[in-house]
Design brief:
- With 211 residues, the protein is α/β, with parallel strands linked by helices.
- The chain has 2 domains: 4-91 and 177-190, ATPase, nucleotide binding domain (Nucleotidyltransferase, domain 5), CATH 3.30.420.40; 93-173, ATPase, nucleotide binding domain (Nucleotidyltransferase, domain 5).
- It is built from 5 helices and 10 strands, in the order E-E-E-H-E-H-E-H-E-E-E-H-E-H-E.
- The protein has helices at residues 37-46, 66-83, 92-104, 142-148, 159-165; strands at residues 4-9, 14-21, 24-32, 56-60, 86-90, 110-115, 120-126, 138-141, 153-155, 171-173.
- It has a 5-stranded mixed β-sheet.
- Strand 4, helix 2 and strand 5 form a beta-alpha-beta unit.
- Helix 1 packs parallel to helix 2 (66-83).
Length: 211
């Protein structure tokens, strides 16, 4: 019998879960939620076949929303403990890049740009051929990135923000990660440690104690 695999992706405005039997997706839940992942994730998993129970869990480790990344990882680790399931991670931008290759078959290097925090964008340049190593991800203020990233087509949740910052120059293709597309990733990219990659420093600053 093929191994069941549960994929959890809530590092972006998308709430996306999918249950696989081997390479075949047997059930899924995918919608653009925006906020409220903490309340919606476990009920979404519960609607899947047999409550989504699986021998392996894959989870988006980021970068993305601080809250979304934490919620996804916490759920994956807790379910992995309860089900005695193996838990692995994968990168947000890596999955979106794999979706770009599958849908648009770009012939040259292309950028994936995702919404970050504090007016910044997470971004990486990807090659047209499928990759088996994680992308090098940067976090850059929108205005600064608009001056340096000049690709005609930009993909991802931050694509429109970047094109707007460039004065409307270029084409923005909105894409959010989709758990149902996990099979597009090479196996090494689906075997990352289940640790968060926030893509930038934490927002909180240490308190300064009065002397």
């Amino acid at each position: 019998m093929s191994m069941r695999r549960l994929v959890i992706d809530c590092a972006t405005p998308a709430l996306s879960v999918a249950l696989f039997e081997g390479d075949r997706c047997i059930d899924s839940h995918h919608r653009e939620l925006g906020r409220g992942h903490a309340e919606a994730l476990l009920p979404a998993i519960a609607t899947l076949v047999e409550g989504g129970r699986a021998a392996e869990i894959l989870v988006d480790v980021g970068p993305g929303s601080f809250t979304g990344v934490r919620v996804g990882l916490a759920a994956a680790v807790a379910l992995g403990f309860a089900w005695q399931a193996k838990v692995n991670g994968y990168g947000c931008l890596d999955l979106v890049a794999a979706m770009v290759r599958d849908r648009f078959a770009p012939k040259t290097d292309f950028p994936v740009v995702m919404i970050g925090g504090h007016g910044e964008l997470f971004w990486a340049i990807h090659e047209p051929a499928a990759a088996d190593t994680p992308a090098t991800i940067r976090s850059t203020p929108i205005a600064e990135l608009a001056e340096t990233l000049d690709h005609a087509i930009v993909y991802g949740s931050g694509a429109q923000a970047l094109v707007n910052a460039r004065g409307g120059r270029g084409e923005a293709v909105l894409l959010l990660p989709d758990a149902r597309a996990i099979g597009l990733l090479a196996e090494p990219l689906r075997a990352r440690p289940p640790r968060p990659n926030y893509g930038r420093g934490a927002d909180a600053k240490p308190m300064v104690q009065a002397g």
